[in-house]
Design a protein that fits this description.
The protein is of the alpha+beta class and about 180 residues long. The protein has one domain (about 5-175). The protein is about 15% helix and about 30% strand. The strands form four sheets. It has a six-stranded mixed β-sheet with strand order 5-4-8-9-2-10, with no helix packed on it. Strands 1-3-7-6 form a four-stranded antiparallel β-sheet, with no helix packed on it. Strands 11-14 form a two-stranded antiparallel sheet. The longest helix has 13 residues, at about 5-15. The structure holds heme C (4 copies). One heme C binds next to helix 2, helix 3 and helix 4. One heme C binds near residues 5, 151, 179 and 181.
Length: about 180
Amino acid sequence: MKAALLAAWLAAACAGQEASGPRILRPTDHSVVEAGPLSIVAKGGSLKLDGKAIAATSPGPGALTATVTPSAGLHKLEADDAAIQFFVGAGAPTGWQEFKTHPPGGAACNTCHAVIRGAWEIKGGVTGDNCFQCHNQEAFPKVHTHKPEVLIDCQLCHSPHGSTVKAHLKMAKDAACKQCHD
Ligand code: HEC
Ligand code: HEC
Ligand code: HEC
Ligand code: HEC
């Protein structure tokens, strides 16, 4: 492996490590969701919708999930001191994008997560193995130009809980490969 590419790989791997504080993972900031039940995923101690505490389940340390049915219009969601805004139904502010939940159909958290020594971890420590429970490994190289081994940290580019970008990407498609390639 070329030294420059190795350095870029290490930088990309580090950039993939998210901030450690409270976060809202589903839905995302400035997203538009359909009317009806909304599944929330967050990291933190407690959840508030429009300033009011909502009942949440904690499947493991620091992990929160809840289902709410918000009215049409603008809403604010808070996990401790992290906050996002989302919009239900038609008439969202310009530029806000439709949020698509992943995996669709409400897969259980323990499809990909486990509590290991008291911490909320990714099962088996590797994202890819979890993803290939449902996705075809054979189809991978054609779409990605790489075998899964090089891109096994799928969350470098994909948002596992859903996204507003095509193919649940965390960034624009042309920026994804540039994390390692000029
Ligand atoms: C398809 C696999 C998958 C499913 C299902 C899933 N997650 Fe995750 N989750 C991940 C991956 C991969 C990461 C790490 C990547 C990231 O943060 O972008 C993660 C990160 C997290 C984090 C942040 C952990 C940290 O320390 O920063 C929390 C909290 C979380 N998930 C909660 C949940 C909850 C609650 C559910 C069930 C409602 C759930 N997840 C379902 C794959 C999944
Ligand atoms: C419980 C099954 C399940 C798991 C686990 C799962 N997915 Fe999915 N995923 C689906 C389904 C179902 C769809 C929607 C149908 C489709 O496009 O295949 C989907 C869609 C996607 C899409 C969008 C495809 C498109 O054409 O828009 C991407 C990207 C994706 N998943 C990546 C991942 C990644 C990365 C992981 C691991 C973090 C993962 N998936 C884990 C079931 C799953
Ligand atoms: C370097 C960034 C990157 C990494 C890492 C990555 N992907 Fe992707 N993935 C992409 C891009 C880019 C697309 C294509 C998006 C498009 O065509 O619009 C894609 C598309 C997909 C799709 C949709 C496939 C289809 O047929 O349309 C699935 C499923 C998927 N990735 C799964 C995974 C899994 C599982 C992993 C980890 C083993 C992973 N990806 C790692 C960038 C990445
Ligand atoms: C995690 C870092 C990483 C990401 C992200 C990544 N690559 Fe690579 N890529 C590499 C490494 C390392 C090599 C060199 C492989 C070797 O020498 O064994 C390589 C080699 C290649 C090559 C062979 C030609 C060359 O430049 O050496 C192509 C083509 C390629 N990658 C395309 C892509 C595409 C398309 C994407 C986005 C879907 C992507 N790569 C994302 C690390 C990455």
